[in-house]
Amino acid sequence: MSSNLYSIGLSGLQSSNARINTTGQNTSNVDTEGYSRQRTDTTSSPVGGVVLRDTSRLVDNFVSSQVRSDTSTFSYYDTYHSMISTSDSLLAEDSISLNTYINNSFDALQTVNNDPTSSSLRQLAHSSLNNLVQQYHTLSGVVSDQEGLVDAQLASSLGDLNTITAKISNLNEQILRQEGISISPANELRDQQELLAKDLSKYLDIKAQFNDKGLMTIQLANGQPLVMDQFPTELKVSSNPLHPKKIDLVVSFGDYEVGLKTQGLGGSVGGLIDYRSEFSVYADRTLGQHAIALADAMNTQNRKGLDADGQFGKDLFSLGDINVYSTADNLNKAKDISVRVSAGQSAKITKDTYELNRTDDNLFSIKKVNAEGKSTDKAITFDPSLLQKDNNGYFKIDELGLDIRLDGIDKIDKDDIFQFTPTEGAAAALGLASRNGEAIALSAPIGVSTGSDNLSDARISLTSVTNTDPETSAFSSDGSLYPSAPHKIYFTSPSSYVVQNSSGVELAKVENVIEFSNLLEKAGLSNEAGFDVSVSSMPKRGDEFSVGTDNIGQSDNFNGLALADLQNQSLIDGKATLVKSFSGFISYVGSKTAEIEGHADSSEIVMNESIARRDRLSAVSLDEEAVNLLKYQQSYSASAQVVTAARTTFETLLGIMR
């Protein structure tokens, strides 16, 4: 009996000692990040006493998984918000607001219209346009600087991420070795591994699981592996010839690489990539669409007037080249494809990417795809051999507002894919083509006069100038009207008139006129002429009105007023003015920032609650450990008394035997 009592007391001592050690371990690691409270389990022995079992970690894998998921979500929105809030504060700053520079430029045009002969006012208007161009560059620089910051942060994050996965893999090896030579679990190593997994979730949305050996494996939310037992993978940035500005990721397995879907990555890496692909691309293309619309509208209108030297106006702005991309094996073919915005057709240009490919021997197709790669419209199919080319080899795709030149058309094979985005980088490439204010075409290219012998008070006025191209209008290359063009309007009655050329030959006759605006349109001649005229009231029989290029005054501001009025025209996508479009863009940035900020705040609350749930189970409580320590100390003392009693009993028995 005494020997049994001795065994019971000894096992109690061992049990109490082990639990005191566990309590001491918990207490000493109260501030250790990632440490999970440990507990030494025991069971009653069938022969008496207590049997020590494992010292295990108090963890709930479901709660730990939730902590990682919520950490990833918060990190995603926090990173996204930090980037977009910077963009919001910069783009919305009044001192660099594009609308301020737009208003200043058009105000300067209005001012010079008051005195078109003033060189100083012309130069002031030219300086305002130059400032506007520089502001496009500034705003584009804000976007590109943020893109550079994303690239730098992403490179750093991937380096840290790959280091973490390597450490997790290394810990798997250590755990396998340590638990193979011991009956106790490698608690501290597993705590380190859990902490690394939590750190990893700050970068990506991951799933941590344990295989049949009890080793941690890491997968992305889409199922792609990052850690397989003792074999880590590596995440890398990969170049994409079709989308050079797009961030592509690959998972390297050492001997081969697999492309990674970048949607829904979560964590800070997902936040950086989504900011770049969603907001940064959108901002760059929005500014580019804005710049294209401004340049095209101003250039088109300036070509309809005469500059200070009496010459037809030329382009005020210049646009950069539109880059054409293709797959790596087709890069040489892409160099033979040129694309530009058709003159006067910028309203048709969208922020989409355009995909060109050859469908068969003769036909090509172009379709528009959005930033997500989804088609946004029906594909346009055309046969280049049937389209008329200009002197530079370009043919028009009217539906898209684009001119295309295919120099190496015979080299292009069926199903070759080429992509280009007209608005990409267009704001950064915008330039001022005119050298000074004298290039601003304020005057109309044609004058009108009312016959001195007319019997009525009706006065003729120039209504519009729509085309000055010598090949398609009444204007010759030297600026004069072709002799065959409309030169005179003669009223045969108050309600009928004829249009005559310079030789008096009748070009058209119109009768039953009750409204006297756009007389050439009524005669069916306005499109060919490229201009139109109106009279102020009902003429009388015999009234004559003339048009020609010798009736232009130096102070004429007809085209200058049209240039200034572009501020009020719906130039962006044919739906919004320049100012309204940029204001809408700033509103979008503000609302997007507020939306992301709301998600960041709410996800932080959810994450903190998950961490608190984990801590309630796994974190060390000094109060609880103090109670346990007192209890185990008392248990140790009691077990020692049992051993003492067993020894006393044994000695008493020996004494009796003597």
Automatic annotation (TrEMBL):
Record bears the keyword Translocase: no
Principal cellular location given in the protein's record: other
Domain Flagellar basal-body/hook protein C-terminal: 618-654
Domain named Flagellar hook-associated protein FlgK helical: residues: 86-317
Protein keywords: Bacterial flagellum, Cell projection, Cilium, Flagellum, Secreted
Comp. bias (Polar residues): 19-33
Subcellular location: Bacterial flagellum; Secreted
InterPro entries tied to this protein: Flg_bb/hook_C_dom (IPR010930), FlgK (IPR002371), FlgK_helical (IPR053927)
Region of interest (Disordered), residue spans: 19-49
Family stated for the protein in its record: Belongs to the flagella basal body rod proteins family.
Protein name: Flagellar hook-associated protein 1
Lineage of the organism: Bacteria, Pseudomonadati, Pseudomonadota, Gammaproteobacteria, Oceanospirillales
